[in-house]
Specification:
The chain is mainly α and 431 residues long. The protein has 21 helices and no strands. The N and C termini lie far apart (55 Å).
Length: 431
């Protein structure tokens, strides 16, 4: 394949003005929220646009950019026409790889219900798994990266249960591409990073749907990919998720050690937010070990790093980690230490701060609040919060949240003489 150099998008760079790439990415995310879109925009994405690597945005970004700059066209923003980009892609790729890369893109651009999303995720880049793919180019690497983004987006909207089994197919495809090799080293590096992130995303779907052994296997695969590629960012991400999984599996010491390993990997990356998240993972492990002092020290580090703000080096996958998630993770620490009233205060803040567009996280934080209130001696409030979760479960499918709510229901049984509690228990039993 012939290589086509990128022409920098100087028009888009001028529109950014004096904002840093990270600040401008935050503006893009806010604009998306205003029109009900969801984009996981970060400094790296802005850099790819300005360098000319992204010559035409996908449809979601197109709607956001045109909302931000009313009256302008994509051409006015420095982008190439969509049909021209597709035409060049066809020239650059062999017919086999281009056709099937497009299948993967279409697969992950699907919206709608969780059922439709899960069915759509069944498409893979390999039309026939018995055929070895051609050597991968940039379009294949981009397709894998887009697959990661779309899995995260669909998980945010619908939860993991409906997505897990279908998402495993594109993961196998990504590793088949990696096995076949790439046309350039830079493309191979992108494929390693993309395949590793896809393994973590599929691992998370397994994790959130209660398939802990599968999750552990996917996270280990991502960690191995990171170490083969020498990718410290991917290694830190894998260890972060492994720490989370170990905590959920009742192995708090393993959780501490994984979080600490992640911190060592992340030390040179220049992302305080990543260090904050890893400190919270470590705090969760210490709480599971009932070591209050070590937990408080890790929480203090988490708040210190978080207060340093966003940075250009923050990984794209960390778009979920804002103040709401910080409050939620701290809430879980206090709950593990038996301080449920304190945990409830943090869980309430998490639910209040979370963007309502991300239904899964709203349901999760509200479920945490319900459970903390039930164990803190506030059964009526707990029943109210539990009812809110039941409302949200009409659009979210998450074994984790359902299990939490079942625990809350068991804790409320002694208070069933309360009309509000009785109504919640009846409704929960019916569901």
């Amino acid at each position: 394949m012939a290589a086509f150099p990128h022409s920098p998008n100087q028009t888009f760079r001028r529109l950014r003005g004096r904002n840093s790439p990270a600040e401008f990415a935050a503006m893009v995310r806010r604009a998306a929220k205003e029109i009900g879109e969801t984009v996981s925009c970060d400094a790296r994405y802005i850099g790819r646009v300005e360098s000319g690597e992204i010559r035409c945005p996908n449809y979601a970004y197109e709607r956001v950019f045109l909302h931000m700059f009313p009256g302008r066209t994509l051409a006015d923003l420095g982008f190439s026409p969509r049909e021209a980009v597709r035409g060049r892609s066809a020239q650059r790729s062999a017919p086999f790889t281009h056709k099937e890369s497009d299948v993967l893109r279409r697969a992950f651009m699907a919206g709608g219900s969780a059922t439709v999303a899960a069915a759509t995720l069944g498409f893979t880049l390999l039309g026939d798994a018995r055929r070895a793919p051609s050597r991968a180019g940039e379009s294949e690497a981009a397709a894998v990266e887009e697959a990661v983004r779309q899995i995260r987006l669909l998980d945010d909207r619908h939860g993991a249960d409906a997505l897990y089994r279908k998402a495993a197919e594109p993961l196998r495809t990504a590793y088949a591409l990696l096995d076949a090799g790439a046309t350039r080293q830079s493309t191979e590096d992108r494929l390693h990073a993309g395949a590793g992130e896809l393994a973590i995303s599929v691992g998370w779907l397994a994790h959130d749907s209660g398939r802990f052994d599968d999750a552990r296997s996917h996270y280990a695969e991502a960690l191995a990919t990171a170490r083969v590629a020498g990718d410290a960012g991917l290694e830190a991400h894998a260890f972060s998720n492994m720490a989370f999984l170990a905590r959920d599996c009742g192995r708090p010491r393993e959780s501490v050690r994984a979080a600490q390993a992640g911190r060592r990997a992340a030390r040179s990356l220049g992302s305080p937010r990543l260090l904050s998240l890893l400190a919270l993972r470590e705090a969760g492990g210490w709480a599971g070990l009932a070591d209050r002092k070590a937990c408080e020290e890790a929480l203090a580090r988490a708040h210190t790093e978080f207060s340093r703000g966003a940075a250009a080096a923050d990984p794209e996958w960390m778009s979920f980690f804002g103040e709401a998630e910080l409050e939620s993770l701290e809430s879980r620490c206090w709950a593990a230490l038996g301080e449920h009233a304190r945990a409830a205060r943090h869980a309430r803040r998490a639910a209040d701060l979370q963007d309502p567009h991300f239904a899964r996280n709203v349901a999760l934080y509200t479920a945490e609040l319900a459970d903390d209130l039930a164990r803190a001696g506030a059964p009526d409030e707990a029943a109210w919060a539990g009812g809110r979760v039941l409302d949200l479960l009409t659009e979210v499918q998450s074994t984790r949240i359902q299990s939490m709510l079942a625990g809350t229901a068991r804790a409320l049984v002694p208070h069933q003489r309360s009309p509000r509690v009785a109504a919640f228990l009846a409704r929960h039993a019916a569901v």
